[in-house]
Amino acid sequence: MAEVSSLTGRLLVATPALADPNFDRAVVFLLDHDEEGSLGVVLNRPTPVGVGDVLLPWAAFAGEPGVVFQGGPVSLDSALGVAVIPGEEGPLGWQRIHGAIGLVDLETPPELLAGTLGSLRIFAGYAGWGPGQLEDELGEGAWYVVDSEPGDVSSPDPERLWRAVLRRQRGELAMVATYPDDPSLN
Fold this sequence. Notes:
The protein is mainly beta. The protein has helices at about 50-55, 135-140, 160-165, 170-175; strands spanning about 10-15, 25-35, 35-40, 45-50, 65-70, 75-85, 95-100, 100-105, 120-130, 145. It has one domain (about 10-180): 3-Layer(aba) Sandwich (VC0467-like), CATH 3.40.1740.10.
């Protein structure tokens, strides 16, 4: 098998041609990507469930909107915390993924991270791909791969994230942001 160039820390932005309803207009932050597969969270799928309804100790630290996000179709009964923590050294209970973005161990007492958290988002479930599966989807043109920015994981307006991420790209990719929700109505 050919060596896989890591996409950890980058965004997968669903192309308008992606047919899977789980990922329609999705923006996925890749938490891990190597020859064994890929794991990420969908950044723009807020649920109506408040963080306080499922993880009360973390509710005060969750950014707006203070709801749980559906991170993907896999393991919806599990929770992942993703936080932006500026600076060189991360606190106990936080593991750096890319730049200032990392995973929070939700078993850690929130008070240990309170002074350092820049933002926190809670995800129910995740998006996962087996070995070579994501590379196949990329080859089929299902995803655009673009650089992430720290504000992407905590966007206060997640419903507009797909268009916003595309709009900031260079060249023709920025034009995709204007693609209508339902092309048949065009």
